[in-house]
């Protein structure tokens, strides 16, 4: 049985096949509408979510399956003190596959050790978010036609942003990716990411606090939200929340074929005036997220 806890649980070849499968689903939706008939997905969200939870649910419904779950820890027995392991053993009696989001780093890994059905990590604290990465990779592949030979800028909260950590990890297995890491001093990429991923795989990278200076060189710009819920002090959040705002005047210096991604939700970091620019890909990215989750569910359930 295969779980998806970390993006490296999938080989590069497996990710390529998921991308191909998603492209086929996009072209031939009707062929997939009954593939998961009789199967159930449980969405266990111990932390808030709009896109990730609903896209898992929509993905399973579009495959002809059904969904159960909860969207708040305090509406589950976690509020009574039940352990993650016991919750998972229980839900495994009701569902064929589980997508789980948890504020504690490592909780989905613990869950996978006790589970009788495949577990998908839908985000664990500031750690990993592999299915967002699949959505990001599908978007980059569809927009740029390739996953190598790219200069990718990551901007905003690189410290707590789990989507950033997972995507950089995935890109470290591609050829010729250059990183530009744009953040205030306090929200720089964690040291473990630098040592264990970026430097270990020899990715050329630069750190800067200037989006203006970085933008002309980028093929892909990955914007992120400053994550209020992960700060210890509200005052630090207030000071840093508007560090980077992408607007049309900054975009004037970017390449004509830049692709702007954002895992969403956005707060202020991308002005709404950017939404109509052809370089804005973040709403396409949302849709791609549903398709690649369909491909992933098929794979983990072993449905051809
Ligand atoms: C991200 C997350 O939850 O990590 N959102 C998402 O899943 N699309 C990013 C964020 O919350 O800022």
The whole-angstrom Rg is: 19 Å
Q: Tell me the fraction of residues in β-strands, as a range.
A: 15-25%
The CATH topology of the largest domain is what? Rossmann fold
Tell me the overall shape: globular
CATH architecture of the largest domain: 3-Layer(aba) Sandwich
What's the CATH H-level superfamily name of the largest domain? Aspartate/ornithine carbamoyltransferase
Spans of at least 5 consecutive residues whose pLDDT stays below 50 are: none
Q: Write down how many β-strands occur, each being a DSSP E stretch of 2 or more residues.
A: 9
How far do the termini sit from each other? 15 Å
Q: Give the helix proportion (percent range).
A: 25-40%
Structural domain tally: 2
Q: In this structure, how is the largest beta sheet organized?
A: 5 strands, parallel
Written description of the protein model:
This protein starts with 11 loop residues before the first helix and ends with a helix. Strand 5 (150-155), helix 6 (162-171) and strand 6 form a beta-alpha-beta unit. The radius of gyration is 19 Å and the shape is globular. By secondary structure, the chain is an alpha/beta fold. The model has no long low-confidence stretch (mean pLDDT 96). The protein has a five-stranded parallel beta sheet with strand order 7-6-5-8-9. The protein folds into two domains: 7-128 and 289-301, Aspartate/ornithine carbamoyltransferase (Rossmann fold, 3-Layer(aba) Sandwich), CATH 3.40.50.1370; 131-285, Rossmann fold. Helix content is 37%, strand content 15%. Residues 51-52, 123, 129, 132, 162-163, 225, 227, 263-265 line the site of N-carbamoyl-L-aspartate.
């Amino acid at each position: 049985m295969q779980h998806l806890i970390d993006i490296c649980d999938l080989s590069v070849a497996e990710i390529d096949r998921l991308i191909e499968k998603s492209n086929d689903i996009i072209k031939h939706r009707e062929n997939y509408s009954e593939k998961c008939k009789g199967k159930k997905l449980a969405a266990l969200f111990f932390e808030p979510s709009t896109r990730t939870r609903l896209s898992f649910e929509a993905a399973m419904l579009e495959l002809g399956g059904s969904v159960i779950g909860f969207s708040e820890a305090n509406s589950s027995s976690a509020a009574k003190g039940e352990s993650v392991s016991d919750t998972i053993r229980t839900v495994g009696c009701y569902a064929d596959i589980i997508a789980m989001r948890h504020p504690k780093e490592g909780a989905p890994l613990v869950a996978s050790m006790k589970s009788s059905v495949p577990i998908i990590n839908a985000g664990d604290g500031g750690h990993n978010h592999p299915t967002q990465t699949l959505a990001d990779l599908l978007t980059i592949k569809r927009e740029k036609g390739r996953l190598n030979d790219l200069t990718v800028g990551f901007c905003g909260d690189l410290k707590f942003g789990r989507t950033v950590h997972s995507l950089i990890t995935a890109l470290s297995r591609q050829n010729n990716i250059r990183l530009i890491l744009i953040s205030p001093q306090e929200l720089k990429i964690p040291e473990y990411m630098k040592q264990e991923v970026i430097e270990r795989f020899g990715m050329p990278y630069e750190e800067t606090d200037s989006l203006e200076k970085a933008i002309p060189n980028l093929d892909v710009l990955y914007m992120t939200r400053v994550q209020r819920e992960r700060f210890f002090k509200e005052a630090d959040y207030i000071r840093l929340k508007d560090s980077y705002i992408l607007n049309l005047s900054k975009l004037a210096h970017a390449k004509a074929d830049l692709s702007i991604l954002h895992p969403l939700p956005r707060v202020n970091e991308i002005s709404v005036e950017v939404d109509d620019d052809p370089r804005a890909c973040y709403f396409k990215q949302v849709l791609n997220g549903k398709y690649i989750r369909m491909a992933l569910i098929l794979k983990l359930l072993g449905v051809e």
